[in-house]
From TrEMBL:
<dbReference type="Pfam" id="PF01797">
    <property type="entry name" value="Y1_Tnp"/>
</dbReference>
<protein>
    <recommendedName>
        <fullName>Transposase IS200-like domain-containing protein</fullName>
    </recommendedName>
</protein>
<dbReference type="InterPro" id="IPR036515">
    <property type="entry name" value="Transposase_17_sf"/>
</dbReference>
<feature type="domain" description="Transposase IS200-like">
    <location>
        <begin position="15"/>
        <end position="135"/>
    </location>
</feature>
<dbReference type="GO" id="GO:0003677">
    <property type="term" value="F:DNA binding"/>
</dbReference>
<dbReference type="GO" id="GO:0006313">
    <property type="term" value="P:DNA transposition"/>
</dbReference>
<dbReference type="InterPro" id="IPR002686">
    <property type="entry name" value="Transposase_17"/>
</dbReference>
<dbReference type="GO" id="GO:0004803">
    <property type="term" value="F:transposase activity"/>
</dbReference>
């Protein structure tokens, strides 16, 4: 099968189209990000797709937090992916910039919490709800098709 849609991920016998918006915040909401710290984060995560099958398609930094648009195989939970991202990036920051530990009182780089939401290329929650409600109803011949495989 040829992949004509770059949003669909073919992995062995599985097909997925799962995108997630993840937001991580620096501990104590400290405004520590600048260009050199952003580059260190990006460098540390550069091989994450090949190693973990986690793809970071877009990354946006603010002074005290970062947003990722991510996709990963459905065999992983969102929490496990976030743990991988936090772990790899925090180790890189602390090894390249040990002075940051003093800013964070010798503790962790990221807060314990995070934000995660699914992002659909197939429509809003309401469209999907209506699609599911219409399953098996013969009178709705022109129902929305979610997949063109």
């Amino acid at each position: 099968m040829v992949n004509t849609n770059k949003d669909i991920w073919y992995w062995y016998h599985n097909v997925s189209e799962c995108h997630y918006h993840i937001q991580l915040t620096i501990k104590y909401r400290k405004s520590l990000f600048d260009e050199k710290h952003e580059k260190a984060i990006m460098d540390s995560l550069s091989g994450i797709k090949e190693r973990y099958a986690i793809e970071l398609s877009h990354v946006g930094f603010d002074k005290n937090h970062v947003h990722f648009l991510v996709r990963f195989l459905p065999k992983y939970s969102g929490g496990s992916v976030i743990r991988v991202i936090k772990s790899i990036s925090a180790k890189a920051i602390f090894s390249r910039f040990p002075e940051i530990k003093r800013e964070l009182w010798g503790g962790e780089f990221w807060t314990d919490g995070y934000y995660i939401a699914t992002v659909s290329g197939r429509g809003t929650k309401k469209i999907i709800e209506n699609y599911i409600k219409q399953q098996g109803r013969e009178q709705d011949v022109n129902q929305l098709r979610l997949f063109e495989l």
